[in-house]
Each structure stands twice: as C-alpha cells, then as structure tokens.
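Hi, here's the filled form for the chain we discussed.

Project: internal
Contact: R.S.
Residues: 342
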Amino acid sequence: MAHPKILEVIEHDVCTACGACVSTCPAGAIVMNKRAEVRDPDNLEFYVQGAAPNVCEGCLTCGRLCPVIDGYAEDEFANVKEFFGAKSTIQGQDGGVTSILAKALLETGTVDCIVGITKDDKWGTELIVMTKPEDVDRTTGTKYTYDSVLSALKEPFEKYDKIGVIGVPCQAHGARLIVENASDKIVVILGLLCMESFHHDVMTEKIVPEVMGLNLDDVVKMDFGKGKFWNYTKDGEAHSVKIPEVAHYARNPCHHCCDYTSVSADISLGSVGTPDGWNCVLIRTDVGKQMFELVKDKVELMEDPKPGMDLIQKLAKMKHDNNSGHYLEVCEKFTFDECGIH
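And the returned structure, exactly as it came back:
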C-alpha cells in the first residue's frame, strides 16, 4: 500500500476528524468514525465485503488537505481585517449572527447549499446539508459534541457549484485546504471560535450526569464562559463547574490544536469579547467582507465591544500555550516535515 501521510496522523491519534479527506478522496477509500480510516488494498477483508473499488490508490490527495499536516499559524490574528460585535433577532446561542448569515446566503442564491451540523434532543449531532433558509432553524445553538462536517461534502460536490461551510477551526482549515488544492466549489467559510469539543458518549454519559450531576433530558443549553462550563436546565436554573473539571475529557486531537479563532475562515464568529447576547465578528477576507454586507442592515452592530479583542487574544494564547508543545512533540514523530507552527 502507498503510505499517505494521514496514516501517521491517524496512528498518533491526532486526526481532527474534519472530514476533508473523506469528501475529496477520488477512490472513496477513506471512511470516518471518530477519526479517519483508510481502506488498505492489501487488506483482504475489504474484498470479502465487496469494497474492492474503495481502497487507497496512492494519489496522496488526502495529505494536502489535512490541517494537522499543514500546520498552524503562529499569529492567528494577522489576517483580521475588521472586528466588531453584532446581534440579530434570531434566537441562537447568543447573537444569532451565524444563523442570519446562513439564511442570507441561501436567500440571495449566494450559495446553493451550506454544510453544518444540527443536534437531536439527546445532544447527538447530525450532519446537515442546508438548501433552504428554513433549514438553518434546525442548526441554531452551539454543539459541544463533535461531528465530521466536511465529510458531508461528497454529495454536494457532485450536485452543487456554490457551497458554504460552517465549522470549528479544524473544519474551516480543512475547507480552506480543499479550496486551495481540490475544489473551487466552496465559496464561503464561516468559522466558529472553539477551545475544544467532546465525543458524544463522553458528554452524555460522563460530563453531564457525573461531573455536572444533571439529567441530560433536563439540559436545554450548554456554554463555556467566565472560566466555567455551564448547563442550563428546563427549570431556568444555571449550573456550572470550572473548566479544568471537564477540559481533560475533550477529544485527544483538541489537545494538539493551535487554532482558537478559525484563522482559515472568511468570517469567524463566537460569543467571546462581547456582552451577553452578542456575537463577536472577525472579518478575515475580502469574501468575508462582501458576505457580511448581505446582513449588515439586518443586525445591530457594536463597533468597539468590551471586553473586546484583548480577551479573545488572551484565550487564543492560552490554547496555544496549552497545546503547542503536544502538537510539536507529535510533529517530531512524523516522517514528514510539513507540519509545525508557521
């Protein structure tokens, strides 16, 4: 078998499961569970199961699309053109700006579809391809359990010409690498601020019932803020624990990630650095500036929100300080040298 570089990423358990390789592998040789898995042509089990066509052909496309191999930006704020606060009338995790942007992109025909995730009543995530503005209503609110957003692109690449992506930093990074190396059909990337995410079973079977001491069925909202992990319940009560009590339960790849603000996105969005009920907005590209014009008259803007960019930069530095050593240690084990902090 050829030796794609992503095999080493997988073997060292730092695959982010962004899904970029899954959606673009021309042989369909990569499948996604909690991490990518490459179908080996030398593994006779695949032939028994009838999967002979779907095995690695050694084209090595996947290695050009992997965020872990591509590496991280030393200064993830170098490409920020504008920073401000915004909120819409859409009910969301905070300001609802991601939702109103997604709706506007679909309403105006700027995109044919948007890939993202929705959640069920058990906080399980589900990949979704949104083609109508009303589809966006199913995706509101932050999900702290992970799903492989970019793996949902395989069918849209065949059906549509203008695709939008909503995702956390590794997914925004993977989407940008697809644009640069594999397909120009992704026309806008909306990136979310993210410190870490969790496997669904860990969140629902460990963190909520054991660490938080709550019944999962009673939880209506989860959030990170003010140094704590918050769960809000149906009775209107807010429950919290300090972040260190849950951080170590995050997915292992998250402990190696050095991107907090989705540096590869056209627009980055979160709820940090702004008052409660507002989103922070970081415009990073000319495309991002153009796309935000679609909603500028539909949202309330705050030119100089507080605590502002200082807090976002502080949290980004914290993530880098916590994770860069782990990431660089793994880079030393790889047989290739593309990775690193550049």
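Let me know if anything looks off before we file it.
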